[in-house]
User: Fold these one by one.
Assistant:
Number 1:
Amino acid sequence: GAVVSQHPSWVICKSGTSVKIECRSLDFQATTMFWYRQFPKQSLMLMATSNEGSKATYEQGVEKDKFLINHASLTLSTLTVTSAHPEDSSFYICSASGGASILETQYFGPGTRLLVL
Amino acid sequence: GNSVTQMEGPVTLSEEAFLTINCTYTATGYPSLFWYVQYPGEGLQLLLKATKADDKGSNKGFEATYRKETTSFHLEKGSVQVSDSAVYFCALSALTNAGKSTFGDGTTLTVKP
């Protein structure tokens, strides 16, 4: 089956620093990648959609200057949390889909837990 | 807009009991429907999906049927195991929303031996 990896799985950083999270599709080409945020015991909140080679589309209320997304290749997307603050602490999950249809199944990464001190 | 409503949890069952987790949706057009499972500390795994009315998705003993007339996609399993303890998310994806997924709030299932 399709495999999506995320790195790192855990990150602890000091307030004010930037953190980069990688999302890779290991055995397929991901034309679209999605970034989600999940708070404890809650559902997933879509942050942005990225297509390879173009700018990410952010959901309403998500600061694009704070959450920088780059989808430079068909197998890699990165989310950079700039000048992180404690309120940015969360579980970040990416998903990837390939194929021509936008209704292709999304395959999820294992998530990255970010703790900002 | 699109929405997914799931049965509120938590759900606690004894091993080998029958499981139903209700899911209803609101969407324009003809969405694809999904069930995902999330184990503690992990990302989501696709459990099953259905892409058109009357389709039945099945995997690992779980089943769900796409019912357009009742806009439902209830998850069922005949005999649950302790290892099925997890959070289950119902979701839809629709062309009218550029393929973005809309998730329910999740239902926590605990199976006791």
Number 2:
Amino acid sequence: GQNIDQPTEMTATEGAIVQINCTYQTSGFNGLFWYQQHAGEAPTFLSYNVLDGLEEKGRFSSFLSRSKGYSYLLLKELQMKDSASYLCAVRDYGGGSQGNLIFGKGTKLSVKP
Amino acid sequence: DVKVTQSSRYLVKRTGEKVFLECVQDMDHENMFWYRQDPGLGLRLIYFSYDVKMKEKGDIPEGYSVSREKKERFSLILESASTNQTSMYLCASSPAGSGANVLTFGAGSRLTVL
């Protein structure tokens, strides 16, 4: 079956580093995405991994290991505005050649002063 | 600024009513999607469309239908609303093809069925 697991909630301190893990079991794999969603707002794209390794984008980095079915999102120099839910999503091969995204339930990150 | 626009931000309907949720995108995207988002369940795909007049069922299509008569517009229809359809509904679009084709989401429509 299709399954994406990530922690429900995490708390971290302003200025610190936090790592949000995501493990997945899907019938196919065609890329892994991370989205950020502030309360009451639409999800917005953060990162994309399709090959193993680390992708860095400013304070945010995302890592992928396809053999382990594992990814993490690393947030450095945390700011209060980083308090949000972080959604891990995997694209499978279903729905035609392009594949649809399967979302995890999201990790609610609270950044405290 | 590119956009996905959902016509209603908040709706309150009664059980049995027919409900239309409209979504329009201005990015000339081929793909459009309807999700619902519920606490503890995350985002679940209801229907999607890869082309005009094309539609495919997602993971939870029961109780819903869709219409895509024009490329830019994708409508979600609840033929007879029920209380278990109270939810946040999110429309999204993306360009065709594989690769890093990012979903762009609308702001969402929060539907309450009484």
